Amino acid sequence: MKNDQPPFTITNEILSYVSSISEKIGRITATSSLEAKPHLRKNNRIKSIHSSLKIEANSLTLGQVKDVLNGKTVLGEQKEIQEVKNAYVAYERVLEIDPYSIQHLKQFHGIMTKYLTEESGEFRLGEEGVFSGDQCIFVAPPARLVPQLMEELFQWMKTARDVVHPLILSSVFHYEFVFIHPFSDGNGRMARLWHTAILTKWKPVFEYIPIESQIEKFQEEYYEAIARCHVAGESTIFIEFMLSQIDRILDEVSVQITEENGYLPETVKKLLEVMEYGIPYTSRTLMDKLELKSREGFRKNYLRPAVELNLIRMTIPDKPNSRNQRYIKI
């Protein structure tokens, strides 16, 4: 960062997203209290945890993550199971976070990486790089500079929080944090947790909005945006990417609330009831579960409305009639 000021440009696209997101958050807050919807809150939190860990190559399925958190026995790597338990504790305490405190950052890194790394809760002492296969594609700043860089970043946030919109500030922090790479492990998980914490301080409803699940759907674009910012030397591209994903996930949350409030067609409700989150189904399997015979009736009354409402997605959206098509509840 030059002169303690992270470089970025506020573009018309960024301003447009800020306006759109603010409007959608206002509608969600006005029409529904997520605090009064424990089922929806829990599902979204589990989606956040599963997606954030999956981005970091945790192989547990959404169903396995649910089982871990429900105290059931899960066959899997102990490290991955511990990652789930740690992330759950961290996200459950997100309201306690002061996102402008380095001490809180270290404390929650200790929670997120408990039993997983010797340097849990402390800045890294060694050098770090990001690899693609055997090729190093990014070298993080030297470890000796990390305390100073983090101090500058947090000082900027404290100064800027009254003049820079939280949607922009949180995205700038996310990118700069990933660039500095302050910990030996858990940097991606902490960046996403802190992004949520900053937005939750602005609007409490963000505690239950699974931004991480949206990032996971566009994981390649997420890393590409970060890489392009490394080359450009500023975070504008990443800000635009993150705001576009937040804008999208708010549409999904609005539909979830509509579903919870009972405004969905009965056919769509029945379809969603027979589907588990994250599992791909063929149309034939779904018809069998619903005990339906007419393929056309199924498509017209069940499948198409659910897709249009963004409640399920196609695995091959560019070829809707592909014989390999599968449908996933989101």
Helical run tally: 14
Provide the succession of SSEs: HHHHHEEHHHHHHHEHHEE
Span of the ends, CA to CA: 38 Å
Q: In CATH terms, what is the architecture of the largest domain?
A: Orthogonal Bundle
Report on the structure:
Helix 7 (166-180) packs across helix 11 and helix 9 (211-217) packs across helix 11. This protein folds into two domains: 33-260, Fic-like fold (Orthogonal Bundle); 266-329. The strands form two sheets. Strands 3-5-4 form a three-stranded antiparallel sheet. A two-stranded antiparallel sheet has the order 1-2. A hairpin with a 2-residue loop joins strand 1 and strand 2. The protein is built from 14 helices and five strands. The two termini are 38 Å apart. With 330 residues, the chain is mainly α.
Please specify the SSE layout and strand pairing.
Layout lengths: L11 H20 L6 H18 L6 H8 L8 H15 L9 H11 L16 E4 L2 E5 L6 H15 L5 H15 L6 H16 L8 H7 L1 H14 L3 H25 L5 H8 L6 E2 L1 H8 L4 H14 L3 E3 L12 E3 L1
Antiparallel strand pairs: 1-2, 3-5, 4-5
What brief labels describe this structure?
330 residues; mainly alpha; Fic-like fold; 2 domains; three-stranded antiparallel beta sheet; two-stranded antiparallel sheet; 14 helices; 5 strands; 59% helix; globular
Summarize the structure.
By secondary structure, the chain is mostly helical.
